[in-house]
Design goal:
Length: 566
């Protein structure tokens, strides 16, 4: 979001999901789309069946690589080399949209100077992607009119995550693939309402509607609207908060997030949690973080409350109560209002509709949206008046920022290099069958039957060095801790790399991950850290992992994928 707001003026997908099926070129980078975003993956499959070119850039041979024209099996953490090398090709072969650049952008000369140093031949040494594949991808992207970029956490969960977003934005701006159907730059949101949370101002740098917190005019407007004095200083992002928890942060209110499962270097966080004086957890189920809670406030789930969710394509949609909440559970907004009033506030909202009406009143991009209008169907922001039909794709007729901004970026290596003690590169991620901290999905017997336990994907040749066989119990170690899991021998992963899902509380992947954060957003480097895998000690239990997981979602442990090179 931060990168897109800076370069384009809006932190969201530029285009709509149903436009994907009509695209002629799709670059999917850092996104395991078929498992993390299966509905969006269906649209990509439609486009491919229709004849679109699909290029997948990912360290793993994810399922989408099976239908791709090209799989760029990139070395983890080397994205800036790939993106700058693509820009190098576009500049040196004069494939830019110069008219678009002149009319709609600024700072192009600065980026031009940088990318000329990033030739595809040099990039091959850093990314392991053949130079000719980089050239071919850049040419196809630049010369295809309906060309879209789709990415997610594989791009952003790095210490240089915002740089990666800038690199993608630079490609979009220099080719003019913005402000038209079936193109643009499209971050795929990982949760059902993470877009809505950002829209509403759940960030230390923006008020609702991406109005900057450091702008005096914005602060003054909200002081008048909310009838209170507001701070002028920028707040802490999540990574910064976790590093001072128990120190300058003495109380913590955790809502809808299991930080003891989802945050990096979690053993260090547990130490800090012991120093916090008062912890409130507001959630629909008990979770790992509740072990540290002084108070647990039971919240209603999506089917038990009224309100709105906003999805990846900026579509604001009504959520309607289907059943009553159990026991003492209530809607989040009702709980928050009572807590605020107990602290001395005087909030008098009667419904979720009242809360959204206040948001829309002060945030121009949502001014035309209300619950009554949403009864007839969702609306995509910007939607500025009550007769505005909403915006199917952004930047039509002009970039929201005024002019798109090119951002020169230089390669910076990941924060933690491998060495003799920790020679493998560890990445973490999601699977098809479980969802994030799995607070909900591991309660579903069918999903747990499909994927009942933690596992680590390791290349057969790396396993052979360690005398590890398929489905052996193993220990995975980093400089921060150790977990036990079942080894899955798979050529989905590169040699020298391993991959672990983040969903399992008994084998928390985030005991292993590094908490170094992006300089702009603080997002931790979940995708790259140094690790080692050892055969578990004698007596550890061997397990049988359901074969259906690999039969459905990728090449099995003994099958060489046609999309994989070693």
């Amino acid at each position: 979001m931060a990168g897109l707001v800076n370069t384009f003026g809006a932190g969201a997908m530029t285009n709509s999901i149903d436009e994907i099926r009509d695209a002629d070129f799709l670059l999917v980078i850092g996104s395991n789309t078929s498992e993390a975003h299966p509905i969006i993956a269906m649209e990509m499959k439609r486009a491919v069946r229709r004849g679109a070119t699909l290029v997948v850039a990912d360290p793993r041979a994810i399922w989408m690589a099976n239908i791709a024209d090209r799989h760029l099996k990139i070395r983890p953490g080397s994205d800036v080399w790939l993106l700058n090398a693509m820009a190098h090709v576009i500049v040196t072969e004069n494939l830019m949209n110069q008219g678009f650049i002149d009319s709609n952008t600024e700072n192009f000369e600065a980026i031009k100077e940088v990318v000329l140093r990033y030739s595809p031949e040099e990039a091959e040494k850093h990314t392991d992607i053949p130079a000719e594949e980089i050239r071919k991808t850049a040419r196809q992207y630049a010369t295809t009119e309906k060309a879209g970029i789709y990415y997610t956490l594989g791009i952003t969960e790095h210490t240089h995550g915002t740089d990666n977003v800038y690199g993608l934005s630079n490609l979009v701006l220099m080719t003019g693939h913005l402000g038209f159907a079936s193109c643009g730059m499209n971050p795929l949101r990982g949760q059902n309402n993470v877009q809505g949370a950002n829209d509403a101002g759940a960030t230390p740098v923006f008020y609702p509607g991406y109005q900057r917190a450091e702008e005096e005019e914005t602060v003054a407007k909200y002081e008048a609207s909310w009838k209170t004095k507001l701070p002028r200083n920028k707040g802490l992002n999540l990574n910064e908060m976790m590093k001072v928890a128990g120190d300058t942060i003495r109380g913590l209110y955790v809502m809808g997030e299991d930080i003891l499962l989802s945050e990096p270097n979690v053993s260090k966080l547990e130490e800090r949690m012991n120093g916090i004086e008062f912890v409130v957890v507001q959630d629909i189920f008990l979770n790992e973080t509740c072990r540290f809670a002084d108070v647990v406030l039971p919240a209603a789930c999506f089917a038990e409350k009224e309100g709105v969710f906003t999805n990846s394509e900026r579509r604001v949609q009504r959520v309607r109560q289907a059943v009553k909440p159990p026991g003492n559970a209530r809607a989040d907004w009702q709980i928050i209002v009572d807590v605020a009033n107990a602290c001395g506030a005087d909030w008098n909202y009667e419904s979720a509709s009242d809360v959204f009406a206040e948001l829309a009143k002060d945030a121009p991009r949502f001014a035309g949206i209300n619950h009554d209008r949403l009864e007839k169907g969702g609306l995509q922001w910007p939607c500025t008046t009550l007769d505005d039909p909403g915006t199917r794709y952004l930047h039509k007729g002009g970039i929201l920022r005024g002019k798109g901004k090119f951002e020169p970026i230089e390669f910076r290596p990941p924060s933690e290099p491998t060495d003799d003690d920790y020679p493998l590169v560890l990445s973490t991620g999601r699977t098809l069958y479980h969802y994030n901290a799995a607070t909900q999905t591991r309660r579903a017997s069918g999903l747990s039957e499909k994927q009942p336990m933690a596992h680590v994907e390791i290349h057969p040749k790396d396993a052979k060095k360690r005398k590890i066989n398929h489905e052996d119990p193993v220990d995975v170690r980093t400089r921060r801790g150790k977990i036990s899991a079942i080894a899955i021998l798979s050529r989905q992963v590169r040699r020298g790399s391993v991959w672990i899902p983040l969903h399992f509380a008994e084998a928390r992947a985030n005991l292993l991950t590094v908490d170094a954060g992006d300089a702009v957003t603080g997002t931790a480097e979940y995708k790259v850290c140094a690790a080692q895998v050892d055969l578990a000690k004698e007596g550890a239990k061997k397990a049988s992992f359901p074969g259906s997981y690999y039969a459905t979602e990728g090449p099995g442990p003994d099958v060489e994928s046609s999309c994989t090179h070693e």
